[in-house]
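Box S2. Input/output pair 1.
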Amino acid sequence: MNMPQPRTVNLLIFLATLGLMAVALFMQYVWELTPCYLCIVQRVFVTLTGLIALAAFIHNPGVRGVRIYGGATCVSALAGAGFSIRQLWLQSLPEDLVPACGPPADYLFDALPLMEVIPMLLRGDGNCAEVQWSLFSISIPGYTLIAFAGLALLGGYQVLRLKHTGP
């Protein structure tokens, strides 16, 4: 069985992250769904995962480099998955246990130093517990978690592949 070349897998990962960001921006600007703090953090990890894969695609390294890039891709996707899980947990809380809602993220960036904003974004707030859209009873962070799992598997595949043909 012919396994896809590492460069092809990296291109696939990059294109998948482009598609994920296109959907996120469509939902934000066409459907007018406002991203919460954790949504923004998940977008950062989707973008980071895609940029790592793009760098690997452009660099086209040897076996050791394929494994290093694959590991970085996997770690980035797993970190993003962690934030998806955090948001799903917030969405599952009873209403009386949901944290209070904070100001919009753009206000935070304007009013506070970056080092104060980052922990707030990483924790999430009551806005993150709101389910703005779902399909088949799965909310946006549920689908994002599925995407992160797929990206992590592709990155892990790059790390564990038995042979590497090409440069």
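Box S3. Input/output pair 2.
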Amino acid sequence: MPTLPDHVRSIVSEIETDIGEPAWVDSEAIESSRGPDPIEHAVRDILAEIGEDPDREGLRRTPERIHRMYHELTAGYHVDPDRLMNGAVFAVDYSEMVVVKGIEFYSLCEHHLLPFFGTAAVGYLPRDRVIGLSKIPRIVEMYARRLQVQERLTQEVADFLMKTIEPLGVGVVIEAQHLCTAMRGVRKGGTTMVTSAVLGQFRRSQRSRDEFLAHLERGDNRR
């Protein structure tokens, strides 16, 4: 096998293993070195309570996997907003609307710890400053990787942008499906929830809101 550059080896490692898991894991050694974990004990209790055997082969490492999974899915609590932004706000002589849409996200509903997922669209009217394109999806990701309700997620993204780059206005629309609706309760799969938050000129001006919504309605006509 050829010697790979570090950045290529990193990509290969991510493809070969779960996020946060090294390519080879001695689970017994890890367990003995780190001591008991409250999350893993709780998962074992849940498995036993529903009538399963936590020690059978298929479930033996499930508490460990769930432990890692919840740390991954709630990593947004630990994101430093300053490091995320990393100075990516630039002075630009541009005052027309900027819209980024089709931002995929996955989050956990705080009521049942079941996933909800969909897409976010974010628009803003610059006040002589713009934000680096990649930062907007990262902002959505920062707040999505927490226990959430869709309404709060929508508002938090809008508030963060308004505070960070001080634009004339911000608009955020999120469209998502919730597995707590599809798998339990009313059990209506395919139900979609749409939430929006508008601040500044997006709230004051019907024209700005209409322009933002018009951008969202435009499909990709490429073939």
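Caption for Box S3: DSSP finds ten helices and seven strands in the chain. The longest strand covers residues 98-109.
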